[in-house]
Amino acid sequence: MEQPVPPEARRVSDADRGLVAGQLKKAHAEGRLDLDEFDERTRQVWEARTFGDLAAVTADLPDVRQPVPWSSAERAPEPPAGRPTAEVARRRSGGSEVMRVATGAWFAASLVNFVIWGIVSITAHVVYPWWIWVAGPWGALLLAGYILGLGRDNRA
Questions:
Q1: 73 touches 130 (CB < 8 A)
Q2: CA dihedral for 72, 74, 75, 79, sign (positive or negative)
Q3: CA dist., res. 38 & res. 59, Å (int)
Q4: What's the pLDDT tens digit per position in 72-102?
Q5: Backbone angles phi, psi at 86, to 5 degrees
Q6: How far apart are CA 133 and CA 51, in angstroms?
Q7: Which residues of 144-155 are buried (b: 16+ CB within 10 A; e: fewer)?
Q8: What is the pTM of this model?
Q9: Contact 17, 46 (CB under 8 A)
Q10: Measured between alpha carbons, how far apart are the two ends of the chain, in Å?
Q11: Main-chain phi, psi angles of 146, to 5 degrees
């Protein structure tokens, strides 16, 4: 029968290493580490393989929280199968924030150009609709993006 692996011997992920590297960066910004020591410790963090290795890098720093190794019993429960999570619902909503922002920028730029064209047309009696050359190509690209589904997060 296999013995359970002690927490300090469990493997770390890149996210765990990134958390500790961020804490080292904070300690460096506070003046607790000089540049050479910060560089050396950051190198050790990215070479660390276990939680024990990570703990050794920050053992002498105050107020440093170590990443916690998960066991299968400690994991967060899965959401109920009947209801999608907010993240899944956002993905299924069609379109993404990038496309909404791009459309908003297009609308704002087109509106500004249209208002300027309207003022110039009224005051100078020039009716050529030049603002279409600003709004048209950009709008056509946005429309193509919506039709092709660009900018959507298609991972389910």
A1: no
A2: positive
A3: 14
A4: 555 555 555 555 555 555 555 555 788 888 8
A5: -60, -35
A6: 59
A7: ebbeeeebbeee
A8: 0.42
A9: yes
A10: 38
A11: -65, -40
